[in-house]
Amino acid sequence: MNDYYKVTFTVTPADTDACDLLADTLAEAGFESFEPADDGSSMVAYVPASTYSEEAVARAISAQPIPVEISYAAEFVEGRDWNSEWEKNYFKPIVVAGLVAVHSSFHTDVPQARYDIVIDPRMAFGTGHHATTTLMMKSLLANENIRGAKVIDMGTGTGILAILADMLGASDVQAIEIDPYAAENARDNVALNLPDSHVNVITGDASALDALPGFADIFLANINRNIITGDISRYAAAMKPGATITVSGFYVEDRPVVERAASDAGLSLRSVADIDNWSSMTFEKTKA
Question: For residue 77, what are the β-bridge partners?
Answer without folding.
Answer: 4
